[in-house]
Design goal:
Layout (H helix, E strand, L loop, with lengths): L11 H20 L3 H14 L3 E2 H7 L8 E6 L3 E6 L10 E6 L4 E12 L2 E9 L12 E8 L5 E6 L26 H4 L7 E4 L11 H9 L1 H14 L9 E7 L4 E3 L5 E4 L2 H16 L7 E6 L16 H12 L5 H9 L2 E5 L2 E2 L21 E4 L3 E2 L10 H13 L4 E3 L9 E2 L3 H5 L4 E6 L1 E2 L7 E4 H17 L3
Parallel strand pairs: 1-2, 4-13, 4-14, 14-20, 15-21, 16-18
Antiparallel strand pairs: 2-3, 3-13, 5-6, 5-10, 6-9, 7-8, 7-10, 11-12, 12-22, 16-20, 17-19
Helix pairs in contact: 1-12, 7-12
Length: 472
């Protein structure tokens, strides 16, 4: 089956819509480089569109009816949005699910040290990364530091033009003979990914005693960094213990290509699906089935923890929603979850001609060919996979063809080459229909990833069609 290029069929009106959506997408990426920043951005956006916080309704004894829009945030890292439909929720709901965490470097709890007149922050990489890609590029520091008194201090350094940036050093080519003989996985070791944050020693107070001068001089660069942190943020070294600081590539999302057809940015896996899911939720009309969008943390490390998809946050939120509409009982909750339809929205590996040997061309996703459906993920013999059934795929084909949405099917590389996972299998545990869908990406998991504007637009249109029409 031939894969058509979506760009060839756009009207002038559609091209205008496509560019507008992608401008909003780039702004979303710039404002949400961490899970917490994503949640803040999403909440600000959806509240402006009429969404109300579910917890406030619960405390006030409020009720919900068809057409109402609510959301619930968990630990500032995951969010679920609902638009209540006219049909009973026991008949099932339509779910768009994606994740908002991305590979990065995390700052350790006891990170700051000085060596050779340079101050460093010790790091631990998060998710699947090629460690050598993270050296010698401008990096930014994002996150929160929570002091013992509960005060939370937000940190965002490296994004503004007049901000300093940070970096991880690499060995100069002149001395790298032995390094160049190593495997790619060993060229840069995990413990070598320490962030350089300073080189200027603090000025020693000449009024101090000789003993005090000597003590200050031992780690004077580190002392200078601590002095800046104290003056700028009011934090002490011990406050690193209760901090969540993430190191990400510095810089804004950019249009790529002479034709400006692509977007190059950090964190598109999987914020491209998070954005298009959220935008679809905001643009749908009133529906018969309740529509849900859940955006979660921790997918890159197995969807574990209180903010990952394996937690009970989603199930609890659905139970609270049913209670607010007067529909809750345990059996109807189970019926709701098992009768639901879901798109597990995650990216797919776009075909890269430079590495064609890793792909099976007939079953690869292509930039510009539209929304991607992946019937199963997992690895090799479909290990760890959710494998969607044929009836569900046929239903989705009808929905998208009726709306003239461009879509394609794909696998994640050759059968024995590797593979990957999503949150699909977790929701499938409820017995609902689930399939992976999303956007083709080049450079997946690299500091800078590439997508096609056309695919972002078609995925948004596909999510709209699903939210309004899925009912299998």
């Amino acid at each position: 089956m031939e894969k058509k290029n979506a760009w060839e069929n756009y009207s002038a009106k559609q091209l205008k819509e496509l560019e507008k959506l992608n401008r909003e997408y780039r702004e979303f990426l710039d404002n949400g480089k961490t899970e917490r920043e994503c949640i803040d951005t999403i909440v600000n956006t959806i509240e402006a569109e009429g969404y109300r916080e579910m917890e406030g309704l619960i405390r006030s004894g409020g009720k919900l009816s068809a057409g109402d829009k609510v959301y619930s945030v968990w630990m500032n890292k995951s969010i679920v949005m609902f638009q209540v439909g006219s049909k009973p929720m026991a008949d099932g709901i339509n779910i768009l699910g994606a994740h908002i965490d991305s590979p990065r470097l995390d700052v350790k709890q006891n990170p700051l040290y000085e060596d050779g007149g340079i101050a460093y922050l010790d790091t631990h990489y998060y998710g699947g990364v090629k460690k050598y890609q993270w050296v010698t590029i401008p990096l930014a520091l994002h996150g929160v530091i929570v002091k013992k008194n509960g005060t939370s201090v937000e940190v965002n350094i490296g994004e503004n033009e007049d901000d300093p940036v940070f970096f991880v050093s690499d060995l100069l080519i002149h001395l790298a003979g032995e390094q160049m003989e190593k495997k790619a996985s060993k060229v840069i070791e995990g413990e070598a990914l320490d962030l350089i944050v300073g080189n200027r020693p603090i000025v020693i107070d000449k009024k101090k005693s000789k003993t005090e001068e000597k003590n200050d001089a031992k780690e004077s660069v580190k002392a200078g960094i601590l002095d800046i942190l104290k003056k700028s943020y009011g934090v002490e070294e011990e406050d690193f213990i209760s901090a969540e600081l993430e190191i990400v590539p510095a810089g804004k999302a950019r249009e790529a290509g002479l034709d400006r057809s692509m977007i190059l940015a950090y964190g598109q896996d999987d914020r491209v699906c998070a954005f298009t899911s959220m935008r679809a939720m905001l643009d749908i009309k009133e529906t018969e089935r309740t529509v849900c969008c859940i955006l979660v943390d921790k997918e890159e490390i197995g969807s574990v923890g209180a903010t990952g998809m394996q937690s009970r946050f989603f199930e609890n939120a659905v139970a609270e929603l049913m209670n607010l509409t007067g529909e809750y009982n345990e059996l109807d909750l189970r019926r709701c979850l098992s009768h639901s339809c879901m798109l597990s929205s995650d990216v797919n590996a776009g075909f890269d001609p430079s590495y064609a040997s890793c792909f099976e061309k007939k079953n690869a996703s292509y930039l510009g060919a539209g929304m991607v459906f992946c019937k199963f993920t997992g690895a090799r013999g479909k290990s760890g996979s959710n494998d969607a059934n044929a009836e569900y795929l046929a239903h989705l084909r009808r929905l998208l063809d009726d709306r003239k949405v461009a879509y394609q099917t794909a696998e994640l590389g050759k059968v024995d080459m590797g593979g990957g996972g999503t949150i699909a299998y977790i929701l499938a545990n409820y017995g609902m229909n689930v399939i992976d869908s999303g956007v083709a990406v080049l450079n997946m998991h690299a500091p800078w990833e590439a997508t096609s504007k056309a695919d972002v637009y078609e995925t948004y249109r596909g999510y709209m069609a699903f939210a309004e029409g899925a009912s299998l």
